[in-house]
Amino acid sequence: MDKSDRIRELVSVLNDASRAYYAEDAEIMSNYEYDRLYDELLALEEETGIVLANSPTRSVGYEAVRSLPKERHERPMLSLNKTKDRNELKEWLDHQPALLSWKLDGLTVVLTYDEGRLIKAVTRGNGEVGEVITANAKTFINLPAAIPYKGKLILRGEAVIGYSDFDRINALLPDAESKYKNPRNLCSGSVRQLDSRVTASRSVRFFAFSLVSAEGADMEHTRSAQLSFLDSCGFETVEYRMVTEDSIEDAIDSFAAAIENYDIPSDGLVLSYDDLDYSATLGRTAKFPRDSIAFKWADEIQSTHLLYIEWSPSRTGLINPVAVFEPVELEGTTVSRASVHNLSMIGSLQLGIGDTITVYKANMIIPQIADNLTRSGNLPIPDTCPACGGPTSVMNENGTRTLVCKNKDCSAKKIKSFSLFVSRDAMQIDGLSEATLEKFIGHGMIREYADIYHLDRYRDEICAMDGFGPKSYDNLIAGIEKSSHTTPARLIYSLGIPNVGLSNAKVLCRHFDQDIDAIRSADEQTLSAIDGIGDVIASSIVSFFKDAYNIKILDDLLACLDITRPEEGDNEKLAGMTFVITGSLVNYVSRNELKDEIEQRGGKVAGSVSGNTTCLINNDVTSNSSKNRKAKELGIPIISEDEFINTYLNE
User: Which residues pair with 358 in a beta bridge?
Assistant: First the structure.
């Protein structure tokens, strides 16, 4: 293993150990071992001059800007001519050795280093003018912040986000419609952020694919030598193979076999002449350079039969068609579904049940319908929404026809309320993500909260769904059963009453001695007199329980639940006290955890300091923050976490 590879390995190992220790409260390496590897990394960085952007030896300073400045490239960045024909590639080689490499699907970036430091990063933009993203590039997880070469160096490469990181980031987004469509879109948005802290959280990587210039560097006039030089500087370079007319087909087959398990998005291959002097004689066309060509994967197409269209309602009211067909093998996996996007596409394909269709995977990843061979056009368009049974309507915007649900109370449009209902602070139902809720609602299995507790009626249908099976179904039902044993405060909060958060729900339940019937029958005057409730919240509660639909929802739900009083004990220890929390915490994972601790003991947590504040909890008691200044102005005590625990919890 060479020294640059060892540096990458040490950075990865040490960062994994730090993440486990500080974020997951787990120790996967002794302090002695960590220090030994850290010292080894530090020595290698000093010896080679290579320091990766995410090295634990380096502290990162983030930057936020109001807009991204534009800059013209010194040399235009041209697109590549494309082919899907292997024979055309062989003819194009014309007896010259060439490099065959991945065509990565991200965002092309031009980097400039001087005196061993990154001084500028610019996106491709339109090929003539790009956006300056220097601060963001410094957060790319594998990009060298310092290199051993001290001359002025300009190179090009692809900023990418791997499929595994794409899935991880999308899983953190609760709103299904805000999830990113593909890694390239996520990467493009991440690289062009105005706040580099956002970029840093996205695990963007950079793969160098060409050297533009390196003042004073002495190397062979070959592309492979340039990539070796960049590798010696600490850059990860795009994977490539040296090929000739005799070996190119085997090389293509090798890349094609690897793409199924390749974590980095790729939409084909790039073939470039190795001899740079020969390349320079070829010049360029108006659109393309003549020394490189892109090879796009020839799509594997299979014939199958359309079984039915699954109509999937969304929170916007759109009802999206998904084609379900007889399973076929494509690019090594079995597929049976493909999005059809809208009614216009259904019309252009003239789809009908039983039609013979051809399907493929776009970029060898995303199933799509290529063509409809029989074009019966007999597909019925539903006149009722599958989620709520309400009427549908065909809309035409800018020539695109879509199907929408007109019912404003459609359960699919209320996905946010269902997400709140199953959330951690509400009914806490594990296994019911927002995406899963959308599936169940779209299939008409859930129309109100109580339906969640009757999902066992749909065992066979759920087990047959993508991502489900008997085991995941059993886990889901177990989670639902567990959630049915709950407390009054959790139930009140889960209903989504406007302006009623978890803390307000706890206040209400304590005041009415955990009696839900008393809460829903209380008048506005009684509610507004409760400390911490007030007129606005009281009005929201009364309005909510005046609605006959809401009353039915609650009554149906109560029939499914086992409501128990919260455990007695220290739950009134902080009654009448109000706390404000600010700054970073040490003993608690988050502010919400400390807030729960206070509320479980009868206290309240406010967002700002006032004359009613008991104390401000801030580990930095000498801070000059606005909350600290306000507390000092009002004579409110400022205490640390430890002081809070010793004074209010352990007394």
Answer: 303, 371
Active site residue 471: no
Q: What is the pTM of this model?
A: 0.49
What is the CATH code of the structural domain delimited by 488-563? Answer: 1.10.150.20
Whether the CB-CB separation of 3 and 44 falls below 8 Å is answered with: yes
Burial class (CB in 10 A: 0-12, 13-18, 19+), 579: buried
Give every CB contact of residue 526 below 8 A, 6+ residues apart in sequence: none
pLDDT in tens, 534-547: 788 888 899 999 98
Query: Does this chain's domain 61-295 share its CATH topology with 488-563?
Result: no
Neighbours of 546 (CB within 10 A): 10
Amino acid symbol at 303: S
Burial label for 68, CB within 10 Å (0-12, 13-18, 19+), is: buried
Q: What is the pLDDT of residues 117-161, one digit of tens each?
A: 999 999 988 788 888 999 999 999 999 989 999 999 999 999 999
In 351-484, at which residue ranges do the beta strands (DSSP E only) sit? Answer: 356-362, 366-372, 392-397, 400-405
Residues whose CB falls within 8 Å of the CB of residue 536, separated by 6 or more in sequence, listed in order: 499
What angle in degrees, to the nearest 10, is found between the helix axes of 248-258 and 86-93? Answer: 130
- 69: which DSSP letter? P
> 356 and 305 in contact (C-beta within 8 Å)?
yes
User: For residue 155, which of 218, 124, 112 has the smallest C-alpha distance?
Assistant: 112
Determine contact, residues 519/550, Cβ cutoff 8 Å. Answer: no
And the tokens for 284?
Answer: 């360029």
Residue 362 DSSP SS3: strand
Task: State the Cα–Cα distance between residues 421 and 519, nearest whole angstrom.
Answer: 19
Q: Pick the catalytic residue from 3, 70, 103, 120.
A: 103
Q: Which two tokens stand for residue 367?
A: 């199933």
Does 61-295 carry CATH code 3.90.1150.10?
Answer: no
